[in-house]
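Need residues for this backbone.
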C-alpha cells in the first residue's frame, strides 16, 4: 500500500521527537545521578571535618611522643654525665635543656611583664631618632631574653600591648633572629587584661616604696622604654593610670652616689638590666650581690656594704 509522502514525513518527525524525548530523559537522569544533594554535601563536610580532627589529634600525639622521647633522652644523658663527674653537654643537648627550662618557667615560673604601651612616648624627635630608640629597645628585649635563657630559674616573660603593626614589632622581627619563636608570651592585651590588679606590681624608679623581696604570688611589670628617654616619671604615671601599686629597686638602701667628673647620677635602667638584677637576687637572696653584679658603673652609684650609710647618703 502506498503511503502519502506527507504522512511519511510526519511519521519520521514523530520518531525523531520520541528519540529526543528519550535522550532528554536519559540526560536528566544522568545529571540527577551526578549532582549531589544537600544531604550528600552535609555528609561530605562531616567526613572532611572528622578527617581533619583526626589528623590534628594524630599530629598532636606525634609531637607529644617526640617531646617525651627527647625528654627521656635528655634525662639519660644528664644521668650519664653526672655519673662520670664531668657534665659536658653538646650544643644540641644544651639547647634541649634550655628549651625545657623555659617551658617549665611558662608553667610555674615567676611572672614578669614588659609594658610596651608607652613606645609612642619615647621621643617627640624626628622619625630617624625615634627609629633609633625603637631599635635600642628591640635590642634590650633581645638581651633580656638571652639573660632569661641562661638563668637557672628563668621568669615567665610577657610582652604586653605589642601591636603587630607597630614599629617596635617590626624592628624586633628584623633585628632579633628567631623572635617569633621566643619562649615569651607576646600579646596585644594589657597586663590588666591578663591578671587581676591586686596581683600586679609596677617597678618604677620614682616609686616611694622599695622592693624588699620577689613574691611568687605577684606579677611584676616593667615599663618598656629606652633608658635614655628624657621624659620623667612615665612608668610611674602609667602605673597610676592603671591604678596598680608601684615599687622601686632598693638602690637607695644598698648604694651611694659616687663622685664623677660629669656629676651624673641616674637610677633609670634598661629592662634587661632590671631583669638581670632580679634574676641574681632570686638566685642569691642578696640585693648587694645583685646590684654589685648588674648595676651599671656609668650610672654614678656604687654598692656599699653598710646599709645605714647608704640610707643616710641618699
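Answer:
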Amino acid at each position: 500500500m502506498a503511503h502519502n509522502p506527507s504522512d511519511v514525513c510526519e511519521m519520521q518527525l514523530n520518531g525523531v521527537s520520541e528519540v529526543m524525548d528519550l535522550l532528554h530523559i536519559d540526560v536528566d537522569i544522568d545529571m540527577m545521578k551526578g549532582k549531589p544533594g544537600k544531604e550528600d554535601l552535609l555528609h561530605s563536610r562531616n567526613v572532611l571535618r572528622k578527617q581533619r580532627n583526626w589528623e590534628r589529634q594524630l599530629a598532636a600525639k606525634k609531637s607529644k611522643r617526640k617531646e617525651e622521647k627527647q625528654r627521656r633522652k635528655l634525662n639519660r644523658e644528664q644521668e650519664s654525665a653526672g655519673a662520670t663527674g664531668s657534665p659536658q653537654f653538646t650544643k644540641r643537648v644544651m639547647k634541649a635543656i634550655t628549651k625545657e627550662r623555659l617551658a617549665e618557667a611558662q608553667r610555674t615560673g615567676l611572672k614578669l611583664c614588659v609594658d610596651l604601651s608607652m613606645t609612642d612616648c619615647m621621643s617627640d624627635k624626628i622619625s630617624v631618632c625615634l627609629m633609633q630608640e625603637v631599635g635600642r629597645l628591640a635590642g634590650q628585649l633581645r638581651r633580656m631574653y638571652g639573660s632569661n635563657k641562661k638563668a637557672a630559674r628563668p621568669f615567665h616573660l610577657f610582652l604586653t600591648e605589642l601591636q603587630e603593626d607597630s614599629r617596635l614589632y617590626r624592628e624586633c622581627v628584623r633585628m632579633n633572629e628567631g623572635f617569633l619563636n621566643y619562649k615569651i608570651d607576646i600579646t596585644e592585651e594589657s597586663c590588666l587584661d591578663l591578671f587581676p590588679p591586686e596581683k600586679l606590681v609596677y617597678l618604677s624608679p620614682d616609686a616611694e616604696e622599695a622592693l624588699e623581696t620577689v613574691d611568687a604570688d605577684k606579677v611584676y611589670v616593667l615599663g618598656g622604654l629606652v633608658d635614655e628617654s628624657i621624659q620623667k616619671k612615665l612608668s610611674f604615671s602609667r602605673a597610676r593610670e592603671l591604678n596598680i601599686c608601684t615599687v622601686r629597686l632598693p638602690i637607695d638602701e644598698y648604694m651611694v652616689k659616687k663622685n664623677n667628673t660629669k656629676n651624673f647620677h641616674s637610677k633609670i635602667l634598661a629592662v634587661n638590666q632590671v631583669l638581670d638584677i632580679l634574676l641574681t637576687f632570686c638566685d642569691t637572696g642578696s640585693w648587694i650581690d645583685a646590684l654589685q653584679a648588674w648595676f651599671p658603673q656609668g650610672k654614678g652609684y656604687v654598692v656599699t656594704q653598710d646599709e645605714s650609710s647608704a640610707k643616710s647618703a641618699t
